[in-house]
TrEMBL record:
Its cofactor is Zn(2+). This is Dioxygenase. InterPro entries: Extradiol_dOase_DODA, Xdiol_dOase_suB. One of its GO terms (molecular function) is ferrous iron binding. Coiled coil: none annotated. Keywords: Dioxygenase, Metal-binding, Oxidoreductase, Zinc. PANTHER family: 4,5-DOPA DIOXYGENASE EXTRADIOL-LIKE PROTEIN.
Amino acid sequence: MTSLAAFKNFTCGLNEQEQIMPVLFIGHGSPMNGIEDSEFSRRWTQIAKEIPTPKAVLVVSAHWFTSGTRITAMDFPKTIHDFGGFPQELFDVQYPAPGNPALANETAGLLHSAHVELDHDWGLDHGAWTIIRHMYPDANIPVLQLSIDYTKGPQFHYDLGKELYALRKKGVLLIGSGNMVHNLRMVAWDKLNDQDYGYDWAKDINEKFKSLIQEGNYKPLINYSSLGKEALLAIPTPEHYLPLMYTLGAKGGKDDISIFNDKAVGGSLTMTSVKIG
């Protein structure tokens, strides 16, 4: 558990620093990645060693879909087990990272495109803790979540990502957590353990997404329905795709882009992830 002295430091405001933090989009996949030693979780562990240690982490997770925009503002967010049918070992996991109410309030003030409510009820859902417990296993870095307003379209979320850029200058690691291709209705459950098994349409649209990201051509990604039937198969509902909009919106003009964990799972899911900066 975090000490009281350390917690008091967490609740202080953050100053700008010379080094700008990167921003990530992480394909989180199955909740089991939270406890398994997989190629995906190993890469999450490694990437944390490659980037500066953040002063805080702000996650936009596919699993907090709300009317309006909210941000967690409690001292110690609870660990949410928002799934069913998995081993008890997964339900037993607790990730006791502190929150940062002062940063939550500051972030709410940064987001001029939305009225942001300070939330004291949510916590860290599996789109956040399954990743971050591999990155920062000591749970000693404050973690906040920002919800996704389901009443708004991709452009709105991209614009919010642009406003979040200022947090990168204060040492905050921004993470969008979802999956670029996420169609659970078409999953080949018998192929989940096959390495990089994806339907042709899933791999084709995933390649298109990657090309547009690396080219910096975000307009078609924002208007993804214009990319044809493969995009609509990849995104039957938007919650796992919209976190990517926040990541792309928070990109700076001089940031490099790299792709990692670039594999398909179960035919109709991709773990493809993006590091910016």
